[in-house]
Amino acid sequence: MRSERSFAVVLALVLAAGCGGSDGAGDNAATPPAAQPASGDATPARGDAIVFGTIGDASTLIPMLASDSASHEYSGNIFDGLVEYDKTLSRLEPRLAEKWEVEDGGQKITFHLRHDVHWTDGQPFTARDVEFGFNLIRDPATLTPYAEDYKQVQTFELLDDYSFRVTYEKPYAPALESWGSMVVLPRHLLEGKNINETDFGQHPVGLGSHRFESWERNRLFTLRANPDYYRGRPWIERVVYRVIPDESTQFLELRSGGIDEMGLTPLQYSRQTSTPAFARDFRKYRYVSNSYTYMGYNLSDERFADVRVRRAFSHAINKQEIVDAVLFGLGRPAEGPYRPGTAWMNEKLQPYEFDPAKARALLAEAGWTDSDGDGILDKNGKPFSFKILTNQNEQRLKTATMIQKRLRDIGVDAQLRVLEWSAFINDFIDKRRFEVIVLGWSLSLDPDQFPMWHSSQTGYKKFNFVGYNNPEVDDLLEKGRRTFDVAERKRMYDRLQEILYEDQPYTFLYVPEATPIVAARIHGIEEAPAGISWNFPFWYVPKGEQKYVITE
C-alpha cells in the first residue's frame, strides 16, 4: 500500500465532505500554509531528489480522466485544487482559492482566486481556467467518472478574472469539497481539443508544486520542483517514481538505496525492517488507511445476480483469517464501505459470520449441488467455476489465494488471474470483462458514495462497474446529498450500509493500515490524520545529507 499525496484526500474515491463550520458557513479568508520546515530537524536546504517505488504506472496525467491511484499520485504533484483538507482532516483550507463565501443555506458559493498563481508555461491562472475545466468535465463527450459533482451546479457565473459564483438548484452536501478536485486545466492550451485524445495527458502543464519533466512508460516518471509555486518553491529539487511491479524487488531496491520510499508489505513492516541498520537509515510509519479491499461480483452474470450466492461466498470467507495471515494483524475486517472509527460507520452491523455450512446451504437453495460427485457444485450441467481477477499486489494475490481455498472447501472452483495494473483497469474493469475481482477503494471523507452504488453510474468508465441496481439505495444516495443535517445524513447512510450488508454486491474484506517507509535523510515529515504526505512539497534534505547532485 502506498502513501497518498495530499490532494487525494479531497479527490479520493480512488477518490472523493460538506458545507459546515468555517468551511461552508461564511467567509474564509485564512492564509494558506507556506513552506515551513518542521521544528527540531536539521536546517532545510534546496537540492537532492527523492525516489518513490510504485507498483503500477499511471494511465494519464489528466486527473478528470483517471480512475487509478497511480495517475492521481503523479498528477497530484502537478495540479492543485481550489480547496484542500488540512492535516487533521477536520476542515477545508484555501489553495487556489484564497477565500470563499457560502450563502443561501449552502446553495450558493462565491470563490475568490489567488492572483499570484501561474501555469508553468508562464501564463496566469484565472477563473476562466476553472470555467473551462467545469464545462469540460460536464461535457458528455468527456470520458470521466467525476462529472456528477459538477452536474449538480445550476449556474456558473464568471464575476471577473479571479472570482466566480456557483449556484445549486438543490442543497448539495458535498459541494464545497468537490472544488478540491482537479477540474482546473489550462484553457489556453486545451480549448478546442479532444480531451480524451490530446497529448496533454502525457506532457502536462500544471501549476502545482512540481512540473513535468519526463516519462518512460512502465519504468520511470520524473518531476522537477516548480520554482514559482505559489506556496513556496519545494526544497527537494527532483521527484522520481520508479515502476517496480514486484514488491519484493521494490524492497531489495529500498535496501540497496535504489528507492527512498515505498509502502511496506505487512511482512516487511513486521519482520524484515526491525534491524538496527533499518532504524538508522529509514523511518517507518503506521496508521489506518482511508481505504478498503473487497471482492466484487459482476452482477450481470446470472450466477452472481443471485443474492444467495453472494451471501454464501461472504459466509465462506474467513476475513479475520485473511487479516491475520495476509496483513499480520495490520488491519481489520470490513463489513461496509466506511472507515472504522468514523461517525459514518454503522456500528450496529455485526461481522458476516464465517460459516461454511451456511454457505453450502445457501448455494443448495440457489440450485447448486454436486450432482456428479466430483467435488464441484454444478447446476444445469455446468460446474460452478470462474476466474478471480486481481492485479500485481502481494496482499491482494494472497487474499485471493485464501479465498480460492475457502471456496473450494464449499465446492466452488475459483481460478486466479493476475494482471498488470493499467491493463486490469483499462481492459477488464472499464470494459466489464470480469466475473469476480479483488480490488480496493480509496475513500473521500464525505459519506456520499453516489458514484459507486447509484444505478446511473454503470456506464463505460463509471465506478459502479459491478452493475449494482437497488431503487431504495438510489433514493438514499439522492437524498443523502441534499441535506446538510448531519444526523439526517447519518440515518440515510446507516440504512445504505444495512442494504449493502444484505445484498452483498461486494464481499467487503478488510481495511488495511498504511505502512510507508522513508529514507532517514528526508526531513520535515509529520505524521497526521491525513497521513505523512500532506506537506510533501516541504520535505527537505539538509545539505550534509544530500545524496543526488541535480544539474540543469
Question: Could you outline the blueprint of secondary structure elements for this entry?
Answer:
Layout (H helix, E strand, L loop, with lengths): L7 H4 L9 H4 L22 E8 L14 H7 L7 E3 L6 E3 L2 E7 L4 E6 L13 H12 L9 H4 L1 E8 L2 E6 L6 H4 L8 H4 L19 E7 L3 E6 L10 E8 L3 H10 L4 E3 L2 H6 L4 H6 E3 L2 E2 L2 E7 L4 H4 L1 H10 L2 H8 L4 E3 L22 H10 L12 E2 L2 E2 L1 E7 L2 H16 L3 E7 L1 H9 L6 E7 L7 H4 L17 H10 L5 H18 L2 E9 L1 E4 L33
Parallel strand pairs: 1-10, 18-19, 18-20
Antiparallel strand pairs: 2-3, 4-5, 5-7, 6-7, 8-9, 9-10, 11-22, 12-22, 13-21, 14-20, 14-21, 15-21, 16-17
What is the number of strand segments?
22
Helix content: 25-40%
Number of helices: 19
Please report the distance between the alpha carbons of the first and last residues. 33 Å
Unreliable stretches, pLDDT < 50, 5 or more residues?
1-40
Structural class, by secondary structure, is alpha+beta
Main beta sheet: strand number and arrangement? 7 strands, mixed
Measured by DSSP, the beta-strand proportion falls in 15-25%
Radius of gyration: 24 Å
The pLDDT mean sits at 90
> What does the overall shape look like?
globular
